[in-house]
Fold Crotonobetainyl-CoA:carnitine CoA-transferase CaiB-like acyl-CoA transferase.
Amino acid sequence: MTQARQAPLTGIRVLDLSRVLAGPWCTQNLADLGADVIKVERPKLGDDTRAWGPPYLKDADGHDTSEAAYYLSTNRNKRSIEIDLASSEGADLVRELAKHCDILVENFKVGGLKQYGLDYESMKAEFPHLIYCSITGFGQTGPFAERPGYDFMIQGMGGLMSITGERDGLPGAGPQKAGVAVTDIITGMYASLAIVAAIRERDRSGLGQHLDIALLDCHVAMLANQNLNYMTSGVTPQRAGNAHQNVVPYQVFKTSDGFMIVAVGNDSQFRSYCQAIERADLASDPKYLTNRQRIINRDELIPLLEVTMASGKRDEWIAKLEAGGVPCGPIQSIDQVFDHPQVVARQIWKSMPHPIAGSTPTTASPMIFSDTPVEYRRAPPTLGQHTDEILQELLGKRAI
């Protein structure tokens, strides 16, 4: 009989001193992969996001609990312990726990943990095996290192808002932030990857190291092709609304009864698109034969397509374009997303037992493993839920 394989990070223990989103998103990824994540929280207050409501999780009688939806979104599969880092006893307790952990994640301001003796330089000699991940706004070096950094301000400083929003001169023009805290999320993802890589390297060297992960760095990195558009041409990218800077047509179109997306990725798809909307004449026009020509002549082509698309119904266009192999889709609200048959089939809405509410919804991890699937072991913990359990298990003592 084949022995069951364990989750990828089984046996790895994480001491999580982070709060809000970027750090907790990182550690939730690690927890989903099987790591034992110990979330250290301030006594009586806990993670800031516990109070970021409404909405709050409701109990069986429909009343609000103390668990904010924001907090629930990013703390699955963890255990919570209350420790006052500002006290000498609390700082000593964190050091004791660190002895039994493989990874420490923190998102204090640069130098913020030094006063407690919990910064990397203070701990590396005593814990040479420890992988210490610092998540900050601007990193450990540079003229902005000591400044606090927040997702919204980084979206502005990092360039995303300069390319997000409607074009100048059109209704609603102006810079626009993303609808979720994408800087925090992508930073958490980069931090997760860096930690897994550091674990692999430690398998060879036996040594930990300091990971310096900055919101600004991660944000700029995720601009991808927009960075290279500028770096190779010297031309600063501008806002394009729902259009694509490098591919035409690749945008939102208004139909007679709603909005939809057409994502033509190559010249063959453009010919199929024109055939499906009964504008084969556009596909044969020399001005639109190639994507390069369509970009050059965008301002002439798009109004012609807009008139045609506005003459038909959204779902009818989608059926025709899908039949022709043209990538397209509707713009859906979040409730429609969770009702979509593909989302339902992939079981992205999950429910977990919760000690206060009975159960809590959670969004499934998108990491799909054939033989070591993500396990939904624990609902996001209540404040200090596991304090006694952790202290007894790791240190053989009770709460102070």
Summary: Residues 250-339 form a domain with the formyl-coa transferase, domain 3 fold (CATH 3.30.1540.10). DSSP finds 16 helices and 13 strands in the chain.
